[in-house]
Each structure stands twice: as C-alpha cells, then as structure tokens.
Specification:
The structure is a homodimer of 198-residue chains.
Chain A lengths: L11 H22 L6 H8 L3 H8 L2 H8 L6 H8 L7 H14 L1 H16 L1 H16 L8 H24 L10 H17 L2
Helix pairs in contact in A: 1-2, 1-4, 1-7, 2-3, 5-6, 5-8, 6-10, 7-8, 8-9, 9-10
Chain lengths: 198, 198
C-alpha cells in the first residue's frame, strides 16, 4: 500500500486523535449524505486534514464506511451477554442493555450514525442484519430451529429498533423522555413474548 | 407571487403530470440528501424541468418539503378508521391497516420517503409525530387521560415503525418476506397490550 502522507503525523497520541476525528466526520457524512453523497475530500475538509491522511488511515472509501458503521467495541458483546442468564428474564435484560448502550455517550453517537447510514446504504443494512442475527441467534438455551429463531430475533429487533428510533434518533415525545423504569415495564413483556413465542 | 415560468406548461393533463414528477424527484432528494442537501435546482434537473417551474408549482423549498412529506390522501383517514370498532380487536386492525398501506404502491413510495426524510429533518419528525399523535389520540372510546394515551400511542408507533423499517425500508430477512398472516399473529397481541395498558 503506497503511503502518500503529506501532512506529517504528530506524536502517537495526536495520530490516534486525528484518526478518531476523521472517523467522527465520516460517520456524520455517511449518516447525513449516504454512501453516494460522501467523498473522501469532503470528510478530509470536515476533519481539517489532508485527504492523503484519510487514505493513510482508512485506505479507501469502502474501508472508511466499514469503520464508520462498525458497532462500538463492547456493544455486541453486551448484547450477547444480555442473552445469557435465565430465559424467563431475557425481555428485561435486553431492554436494560439497550437503554444502557444508548446512555453511553460513546456508543450513542456510533449507534445513531449506524441507524441513519443504514437508511441509505444496503451494504450497511446487510452487515447490521448479520450482526443482529449473529448476536441474537447465539443462545443455544433457546431450543428452536434456525428459521424460528431468526423470526423471533427479527421481531425482537423490530421493537427495539422502533423504540430506539423514536426515543434517541427522532426524539419524539413522550417516548423520548419516558423513564428507563417505564420503558422496561412497557417493553420487556413484549420482548419476552417474542422470545418465548407465546 | 411572481410567476417566472419559462417552460411553457402544456395542456392540463401534462401540467398535473409535471407537478407529480417534480414531487416524486423532491421526495427522492429529501429522502437521500435531507433538507440541507436538497436544492430546487437539483430537483428541477432530476425532473428534467426548468427550476422556475418548480417555484411555479411549489413556491419555496419549505413548501416543497411540506408537499413531499405529507402523508398520502386517505392514509391518515385509514388509520383513524382502524381505531374505530371494537377495542378488543384494535391490535389486529392497526396491524392489518399498516400492511394494507404498505401494500399500496402509491402509499408505499410516500411512506418510505417520509421515514427516510424524518431521519434528517427535525421539522418533518415533528409533523409526523403530530400526525401520529392526532390520528392515534382520536378514539374517545379509550377511557384514559391524555398523558397516558400519548404514552400508549407512542408505544404502538414504536412497534409499527420498527417493523415497517425492517420489512419495507431496510428489507431485512426474515421480516421482509414474512407472510401478512404471520405478521398479524406476531404483532397484533403486542399492539393490543399497549392499547389495553396490560
């Protein structure tokens, strides 16, 4: 890979900061303008760096999109973890995990960007669907065939996605300012019913 | 209002067709590029008309956005109608109404565009939230105070929105190709529980 870096990268700390700044600007651009409307040049301008530095860190627009729409480290693990433990409390744990993830400032900005980018970009939706499916299908504790598990995982995702869109992306009242306790009371039985197939 | 139409509009039928073509291009642009990324000039180019004609039909970018994100005639009425009839079957009727609306080619393209535009644009979300609230709050048959009704309407919206996003906008499997009968079986009890506050 040819490196054509004209901007001299600073010391290690500053380099990480530059990469993070580029990634943040890329997330914003993919979310607002989609794949077609995003250029390396515009991302570089927004991040106030030379375009060559964007290529240096992220190689191509494809790789930049992939980095921008990768769930934050720890997030998918937290979903998998939520699926463990007693099946009878899965609804409760999955809703609590959702609320905790969006309450985390670092996760929130990435999750929001992924949801918005997914609206534009089929490849992002595909990767997101795979992540969701993989992380939800894991629990061997639920004794079902794969087709049935995918249906239930999809139903769980539909309720959690719609709630997250209204509460955190669209910020529509009264969902946006509903207490966490009320959200759990309302949603957990729905999720549990989808898990149980009742 | 000054009319600066350089393109000579054709006979009546053709005029309606031009306005519809402009509106379709505007919907596409607001959905893909948001408010900031949409220009009258680009909409005119996409519709293959003179920009003056866009101003002639829609006066301003604000009015064009409003026209592009107005629910199709008949849609809100169908939602209100679904709220009438026996309360015990509300869940069933609201899900059937959603499926019927998205099965209608004319509605589908407008609903999709509204959902995508709402991701970008706060004013569109606000209008959408008002539409949802108004159309869901109507039924005096549900004996509740306003705050409680808004919470329940919001929960109903969260499930229907999430399902519509996965099935029709993101087209994620197995939700996308689930039969209508299965969708009703899975979702109606959820919606009913939110209505009943059970």
């Amino acid at each position: 890979m040819a490196k054509r870096v004209r901007t001299t990268p600073g010391p290690r700390g500053e380099r990480g900061e530059l990469a993070a700044r580029i990634l943040a600007c890329a997330r914003e651009s993919f979310a607002e303008h989609g794949w077609a409307g995003t250029t390396i040049r515009a991302v570089a301008r927004a991040a106030d760096v030379d375009p060559a530095l964007v290529y240096h860190y992220y190689r191509s627009k494809e790789d930049l999109l992939e980095a921008a729409t990768t769930p934050p480290p720890g997030f998918l693990e937290s979903v998998v973890e939520a699926w463990h433990g007693p099946t009878a409390e899965l609804g409760d744990r999955l809703v609590r995990n959702l609320l905790a993830a969006w309450a985390n400032d670092e996760y929130r900005v990435v999750l929001r960007s992924i949801l918005l980018t997914a609206a534009h970009d089929a490849a992002t939706r595909e990767r997101l669907a795979q992540s969701v499916t993989l992380s939800l299908m894991g629990p061997a504790m639920i004794d079902l065939n794969d087709a049935e598990r995918q249906v239930r995982a999809g139903l769980v995702a539909s309720q959690l996605l719609g709630f997250a869109m209204l509460r955190y992306v669209w910020t529509v009242e009264p969902i946006a300012s509903m207490s966490d306790a009320d959200a759990i009371d309302h949603l957990a039985p729905t999720i549990q019913r989808y898990v149980d197939g009742a």
